[in-house]
Amino acid sequence: MLVDSAERVADVVVVGGGVMGCATAYYLAEAGARVVVVEQHRVGAMPSASGASAAIVEALAGNPEPLAQQAQLSRRLLGELAPRLLEATGIDIEWQRLGTIRLAFSSREADMLRTHVARLYGDLGEESEWLGAAELGRAEPAAPERVVGGLLVPSSNGLYAPKYVRALAAGSAALGATVLQGVSVTGFETHGGRVSAVQTSEGRLPCGQVVVTAGSWTGVVSRWLGRALPVGPQRGQIMALAPAPGQPRVAHVVHGPGGYIIPKANGTAVVGATHEFVGFDARVTTYGMKFLADLALRLAPGLETASVKHVWMGFRPNLEVDALPPVGRVPGLGNAFVASGHGAIGVTVSAAVGSLLAQLMRGEEPEQSLAPFDPAKVVSG
Ligand SMILES: Cc1cc2nc3c(=O)[nH]c(=O)nc-3n(C[C@H](O)[C@H](O)[C@H](O)COP(=O)(O)OP(=O)(O)OC[C@H]3O[C@@H](n4cnc5c(N)ncnc54)[C@H](O)[C@@H]3O)c2cc1C
Q1: Contact indicator for 66, 217 with CB cutoff of 8 Å
Q2: CATH node for 100-156+233-319
């Protein structure tokens, strides 16, 4: 039993210990709040999205405009967080400037990249450079020979997702937060339009505020609040390959039709990912392995002789309506908040979302407006 008294033990209970929950907890704890994070599994474990992520962090992840601004803020915050988390927790999140190359396999794709995509990056203040086939071969020796060229964006970043989410949790704990693992939230107690306590598999947690960051399970958890949010699971299968000795290493994040490869500090090339609507089916399948192997060989043919180190999956929190991911106050409940539905870009925007939501929850004006993300736009019930 956690708590069995009417005494408030937490200023804030965070439901779900993925990047959204842990980033919000980190910034709240840094501002002095007493925070309890409740995570049903271990932080970063399968089948949640955060530990599974390829963790490509780049400007174009955020499109349209309000998301683009969040992505830019997040990249700045991540640059600051990486050394702070290392110092506080000893965990290196492997924040790196890798650069991205978008491959063109036809002159039509080349035209599209050189005009439309280069302009999108330019609008975000990001430089890009067109590489012809010969220059591309020198810059990225792992790329296939038969490409027309590629668009290089030198400023794109990456990190190592399992370490990032664990470092956020450990960093929050170092700032005084409590992180409960293997404990499930099972319901809420509400009085007079406010949540007074969170019910868990280990007992009740009286609280001043609650934030739902339950990823793909947000649809389920939000129904317990009487406010259904349209967020459900999308399975992403992903694979790490270790190149054979003598084969060229993938040096940049390489994008092509159907997916990407991102190099990691341990020498592996991570190839992703599938986008499947199969409910909460957490299996890694034959289809997934074939999809990923075909993709790897299309983008970096030298990986043919690589060893398969690991194949895994995660459930992306998929927003089931055409809207921006809900971040803010749950309508009709004075002290309940949500941050969810970030699909394939959640790691990228996580630091900004956590920081802005913590500002809102503390009664401050967020440094970037969260109005476009108002959960009232997508909630039902
Ligand atoms: C294969 C793959 C590749 C990806 N690549 C990228 C990428 O390159 N760049 C990028 O920016 N993003 C990427 N993403 C997306 C990114 O990982 C997600 O958007 C992000 O991690 C979502 O974080 P979250 O905290 O909302 O959800 P989650 O990480 O799923 O966390 C939610 C947590 O809530 C917990 N929870 C749920 N219900 C309860 C309950 N009742 N009680 C207690 N705990 C509960 C869950 O166990 C889970 O740990 C990728 C995702 C996948 C799957």
Answers
A1: no
A2: 3.30.9.10
Q: What are phi and psi of 130, to 5 degrees?
A: -80, 130
CATH 3.30.9.10 domain position(s) in the chain = 100-156+233-319
Q: What's the sign of the alpha-carbon dihedral 46, 47, 51, 55?
A: positive
Give residues with Cβ within 8 angstroms of 257, minimum separation 6: 105, 109, 298
- 38 CA from centroid of ligand 1 (Å): 14
Report the C-alpha gap between 58 and 40 in whole angstroms.
Answer: 30
The reported pLDDT for the residue numbered 63 is: 59
Q: What separation in Å is there between the alpha carbon of 313 and the centre of ligand 1?
A: 11
Query: Quick check: CB of 12 below 6 Å from ligand 1?
Result: no
Cβ–Cβ < 8 Å for 366, 337: no
The Cα–Cα gap between 68 and 93 comes to: 23
Share of the chain above pLDDT 70, in %: 97
Q: Is the CB of residue 236 below 6 angstroms from any atom belonging to ligand 1?
A: yes
Fold of 10-91+161-230+322-377: FAD/NAD(P)-binding domain (3.50.50)
pTM of the model: 0.96
Separation of alpha carbons 12 and 98, rounded Å: 37
Q: Which two tokens stand for residue 96?
A: 């790196």
> Which ranges in the chain are annotated with CATH 3.50.50.60?
10-91+161-230+322-377
For range 208-219, the mean pLDDT: 98
CB of 169 closer than 6 angstroms to any ligand 1 atom: no
Helix (H) or strand (E) holding 294: helix 286-299
Tally the residues of the chain. 381
